[in-house]
Amino acid sequence: MKSILLTTIVASRVNNWDKYIGTDDFKDLPTTFKNLFNRLNEWLDENDSMPIVNNPVDGEENFNRHWDENKYQNFKSQVKKYDAWANDAYGEMDKAKSITKWQKIFGDKFAKSAPVKKEATKQLPSHCEPLRWPLASYASKLNVKAVVQKGKTSVSLGDLASFESVPKSHWIRFVVKDQLDNDTQIHWQVVNNGAEAIESKCLRGDFFEGKAIHKESTAYKGQHWVEAVAIKNEICIAKSGPVFVNIM
To answer: In this protein, which residues make up the domain named Adenylyl/Guanylyl and SMODS C-terminal sensor (predicted)?
Structure first.
């Protein structure tokens, strides 16, 4: 793929809103890398066939001479794969595991000399149900986007990732971005923690079947998390990993 075509497509994923209003989507290099891939993957999903890519400084020229439909579909497939890898590496809480996952993208030499402190394996809270389905050896990353809303049906206030914490009395909308076939079910796990959840006897942690969109209110202070899993023929074929929610 010609660099001028790639540069134009990627640069176009940053808009004037980002420039003039400001965003945390590009606050550091890993966040920038992940969010550019997220936006690129979303844009490609919106274009089933090769779109016209215009020269940003000459509206009468486009760069489509540098690819064709086959090259576009291959590019789209590769971006989706690397987008899932980037989300997985970015969301990994264990430093050693995170480096290994980034090496899947950048190669074995990436962060080879980075010091890694080994930590004990963290146990799940007692009220958190372990995965009840066998995990497929080919299991993939399930892409979930989370946005903050003032009300249950309000417009988005922004991506959850851009909030250090979310106030109480708000809502978070979780959306599974992957296209799943009719034989695959989505199950959600909402794990509440903290004194307020304990006092209200609401330490949730069980899996339940749902749809591609799930909404939760921010009712209790503390660090909570939500995870989505894809189940087919009673086997877990994809997991989102925990999406952490800090409520203040």
So the answer is: 126-247
